[in-house]
Amino acid sequence: MTPAQMTKGMPVEVLAARAGEQRRQLHNDVAELRSAIREQLDVRKQVGPYVFPASGVAAVVGLVFGYALTGLFTD
Question: Does the pTM exceed 0.85?
């Protein structure tokens, strides 16, 4: 059954009400999707728990690199 056959004989008001409801539902779905994407791409929220461990690793790597570089020039 084609869409034209399904809507044949239905009042225009019913079709307009359905279209309006579908537009509202689509708008709500898009708004929800945008909100979810914005939350997933929030850098501060994603990086926050890893700041201190990453800082510790960077400090250790810098310390090791510094000692290695100093060892090259002191011998």
Answer: no
